[in-house]
Amino acid sequence: MTGSKFDVGDVLSDSLNLIVKRPVITLPIVVLIVITFTPILLLVMVESLSEYLNLQVETIGGWMEGFIIISFLLFGVIFLIAYVLVIGAYPLIVKDAIQGGKIDFRKALGAAAGKFFTIIGAGIVAILLIFLGLIFFIIPGLIIMVLYFYCIPAIVIENRGPIDGLSASEAFAKDKKFTTFLIYLIPEIVFEIVFNVSGILSVAEGYIWLIDSVIFVINLVLFIVFTAWILIIPSYVYVKYAMKDEENEFAMDISG
C-alpha cells in the first residue's frame, strides 16, 4: 500500500481544523488528564487530612509511605491502560469526524480494547527498533520512527496484527519519509513555542488570583488542543491518504 501523497500544510491545517469544528474529539485527552492528576489530588487530600487531624509523622509515616507507593503503582497501571485505549481509539474517532457523522466513542474504545495487546506489542517492537537505531547512528532511528508513524491506525482501522500493522505503516510511509517527518516535527516545535510564549504570562502569577486562574485555563486548553492534534495527525493522514478508495469515497473536505 503506497497510498496518495499529501501536502504537509494541508495535513497540519486540516487536522487542526478538525478539532476546531469537532471539539468533542478532545474528550479522550480530557479524561486522560483527569486520570493523570487523580493520584496527585488524592495525595494532597491525604496530607491535608493528616494535618487537620494533627497526626504525628511517626504515627502515619509507615502506612502513608505504603499508601503512596501502592497508589502511584496502581494509577500508573491505570494510566497505561487508559493511554493505550486513547491512542487506539483515535483512528476510528478521526474517521468518524472526517466522514461528518456522529463520533462513536464507545465503538472506538471497544475497538481499541480489542487491539489492546496488539498495540502494546507493536509499540514495544517499534520502540526497541527506534532505540537501537538512535543508539548507533541516530538517522536510522529517525527513519524507523517515521516508517512506523502510522502503525496504530493501520492496526485498528484495518484489523491488522502488530507486525502486519508495522509493515502497512512502512509501506505507506516509505515514499513519504520527509513529509511524515515534517508532520511529526512541526507540531512539536509549535507546541514548544506556544508554551514558551505562554510562559511569559507566568510573570504575573501570584499577584491577582483571577490572573492565575486565567493563565491556568489558557495553558490547560492549549495543552488539550495540542495533545489531541498530535494524536490525531497519524490517523488523519492514514484515513485520508492510505485507506482504500471505496473506504475513502465518503470522506468530506473539512478545510472549507
- Could you give the distance between the termini? 29 Å
SSE-based structural type: mainly alpha
Let me know the number of strands.
Answer: 0
Quick check: average pLDDT?
82
Keywords:
single chain; 256 residues; mainly alpha; globular; disordered C terminus
How would you describe the overall organization of this protein?
With about 260 residues, this protein is an all-alpha fold. It has one domain (about 10-250). It has helices at about 10-20, 25-50, 55-100, 105-115, 115-135, 140-145, 150-155, 160-175, 175-200, 210-240, 245-250. Helix 3 packs across helix 4 (about 105-115) and helix 3 (about 55-100) crosses helix 10 (about 210-240).
What can be said about this structure in brief?
The chain has helices at 8-21, 27-52, 57-99, 105-114, 116-136, 139-147, 151-157, 162-173, 177-199, 209-242, 245-248. The protein is mainly alpha-helical.
Secondary-structure topology with pairs:
Layout: H1 8-21, H2 27-52, H3 57-99, H4 105-114, H5 116-136, H6 139-147, H7 151-157, H8 162-173, H9 177-199, H10 209-242, H11 245-248
Helix pairs in contact: 1-10, 2-3, 3-4, 3-7, 3-10, 5-6, 5-8, 6-9, 7-8, 9-10
